């Protein structure tokens, strides 16, 4: 038999579960498909820590498994992620986005990075590379369905570190592409920053270099706030992060595209 304290906790936990269910069903009615699991405070148990930050489909929510509380006194919370309009993805066709969908994704990326303090020049430089790599399709596979090859906005090769960082497989990534493309873009921008700023050599991808026709060397933090010529910055991004097999002409194509996006966003 439960003592008084236990029954009070039990009541609190079941009302939190009820609140979370209400939150998710309201979010789903508003057209959203995912929620995020967030741990709260310190001394979080291993089970909850493993779920921290995970983006979970609302239709996959299971009380006590991935929907808190997971245990008595669990302080974890959920937030519904907005399936914001104006972002697009096509997992079945690498360069499948229409011109207006590409512009829409560029605007979405510009909005997100501007808020994070990126300069318009640096955003344009990134967009020039994204246009070349994936045609702005966050679900683009270099080889359809093959996660050992390039994947996503900037064609991470292989796709596995990106997928495993977020604890999803390629089927789940494709579902996300179809249901909530903006969340897939958010995750890829987050992964870009992570792999550019981490000090772990096995995940780090930003390496200043003069190779690959780079005009100069730069740290990631200087890059994102730089107001240098967007054409040069496009080449910096390519050499420091992308390192494709592009010829000098190919890199010039990225620079042309960066210049176009700079003119499009400058002053907005
Ligand atoms: Zn918890």
Description:
This protein has 268 residues and is mostly helical. The chain has 2 domains: 4-81, no CATH class; 99-265, Lysozyme (Orthogonal Bundle). Helices cover 49% and strands 5% of the residues. The protein has 10 helices and 3 strands, in the order H-E-H-E-E-H-H-H-H-H-H-H-H. A 3-stranded antiparallel β-sheet has the order 2-1-3, covered by helices on one side. The radius of gyration is 21 Å and the shape is elongated. The N and C termini lie far apart (65 Å). Bound molecules: zinc ion (ZN). Zinc ion binds next to loops.
- The assembly state of the depicted protein chains is single chain
How many strand units? 3
Q: Which structural class fits the helix and strand makeup?
A: mainly alpha
Spatial shape = elongated
Largest sheet: 3 strands, antiparallel
CATH third-level topology of the largest domain: Lysozyme
The tally of domains stands at 2
In a few lines, what is going on in this structure?
The protein is 49% helix and 5% strand. It is built from ten helices and three strands. Zinc ion is lined by residues 39, 48, 68, 70, 74-76.
Question: Which features would summarize this protein structure in a list?
Answer:
elongated; 5% strand; mainly alpha; 268 residues; 10 helices; 2 domains; binds zinc ion; Lysozyme
Secondary structure topology:
Layout: H1 4-29, E1 34-38, H2 46-49, E2 55-57, E3 77-81, H3 99-115, H4 120-134, H5 160-165, H6 170-179, H7 181-197, H8 220-225, H9 230-242, H10 248-265
Antiparallel strand pairs: 1-2, 1-3
The structure holds zinc ion (ZN).
């Amino acid at each position: 038999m439960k003592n008084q304290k236990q029954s009070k906790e039990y009541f609190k936990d079941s009302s939190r579960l009820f609140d979370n269910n209400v939150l998710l069903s309201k979010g789903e009615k508003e057209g959203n498909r995912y929620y995020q699991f967030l741990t709260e405070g310190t001394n979080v148990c291993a089970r909850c820590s493993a779920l921290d930050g995970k983006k979970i489909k609302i239709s996959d929510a299971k009380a006590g498994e991935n929907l808190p509380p997971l245990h008595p006194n669990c302080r974890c919370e959920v937030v519904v992620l907005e399936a914001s309009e104006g972002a697009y993805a096509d997992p079945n066709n690498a360069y499948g986005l229409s011109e207006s969908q590409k512009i829409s994704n560029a605007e979405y990326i510009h909005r997100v990075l501007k808020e994070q303090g990126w300069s318009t020049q640096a955003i344009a430089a990134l967009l020039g590379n994204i246009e070349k790599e994936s045609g702005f399709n966050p679900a683009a596979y270099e080889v359809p369905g093959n996660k050992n090859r390039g994947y996503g906005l900037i064609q991470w090769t292989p796709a596995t570190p990106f997928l495993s960082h977020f604890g999803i497989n390629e089927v789940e990534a494709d579902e996300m592409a179809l249901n909530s493309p903006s969340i897939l873009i958010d995750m890829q921008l987050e992964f870009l920053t992570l792999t550019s700023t981490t000090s772990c050599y096995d995940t780090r991808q930003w390496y200043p270099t003069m190779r690959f026709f780079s005009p100069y060397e730069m740290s990631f933090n200087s890059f994102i706030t730089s107001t240098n010529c967007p054409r040069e910055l496009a080449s910096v991004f390519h050499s420091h992060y992308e390192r494709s097999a592009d010829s000098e002409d190919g890199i010039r194509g990225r620079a042309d595209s960066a210049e176009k996006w700079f003119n499009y966003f400058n002053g907005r």
